[in-house]
Structure formats: C-alpha cells, structure tokens
Input
Amino acid sequence: MKPELLLLPFGLAIAGCADKSVDIPNAEIEAVQLVFDSAEQTPAVMEKWSRSCVLCHVNGEGGAPKMGDVAAWGPRMAQGNAWLMSHTLEGFNRMPPLGYCMDCEEEDYAAMIKMMAGADE
Ligand code: HEC
Output
C-alpha cells in the first residue's frame, strides 16, 4: 500500500466537516474546467433552465443564490467549477441533486451556472 493512502484518513479527519473534506482528483478538475470553458448559453439550455433552476434560483428559494447576484455567487465560484458541478450533480443541502433537470448534461449545467453567476461574458 502506498504511504499516502495511509495518511488519507488523517487528512479527512483534520478537514472535518468543511466543504472540501473529500478531494476531487486534478484530472477531474481539469475535465470539468474544459466543459465550463466550452459551455454556451443556447435556446435549448435556456429552455431546460426555465423549467428547473428557475424554480429556486430566481427568488432565492431555500437560500439559493439568485440569478445574477454576483455577491452571492462570488464565494461559491471561488471554490472552483469542479465543486459547483459536483454540488449540482449530487445535491448540496437544499440544492436537490441534478437541480430538477433530469435531461441536463454537464455542458448544460456549466452554461446555466455561468449564466446565473453572471460569469458569462
Ligand atoms: C428546489 C430548489 C432548487 C432548484 C430547482 C435548483 N437549485 Fe441550485 N441551489 C438551491 C439552493 C437552496 C442552493 C444553496 C445550497 C446551500 O448553499 O446550502 C443552491 C445552490 C446551487 C449551486 C451552488 C452550489 C455551491 O457549491 O455553492 C449551484 C451551482 C446550483 N445551485 C446550480 C443549480 C442548477 C444548475 C439548477 C438547475 C439545473 C439548480 N441549481 C436548481 C436550490 C435549488
């Protein structure tokens, strides 16, 4: 067994209940970044968005960061796109897994997140 595998449980214990208690492998961080870089806001994406994310991210339902609220999205963006994606796919507190969009692909989520966070140029 590799020594770093033995150290892993201690690292997790120190990280405690912090958001980043589980590491995302670098390869996945890079892969998600590529998806974010190429994701575009298209009519198809908007259609999916308007029947899912809208339900909570327009009014701030359950504490959801609101559409275009740069102050609310800033600290979330700072944790990195891979984290935003994993919280979207797996859910996060009152954020439901997949955000109620059952036919969304990762590219769709990336485009929606960029748009809601005001990160679309
Ligand atoms: C049922 C309500 C609801 C729906 C529908 C919903 N969200 Fe959320 N979302 C939330 C809430 C509440 C939070 C805040 C969770 C927290 O920080 O505790 C959140 C947070 C997020 C975050 C930030 C996660 C983080 O790491 O800070 C992202 C990204 C996100 N939502 C994306 C989406 C996308 C994309 C959709 C549509 C596909 C969507 N959400 C649909 C309620 C919702």
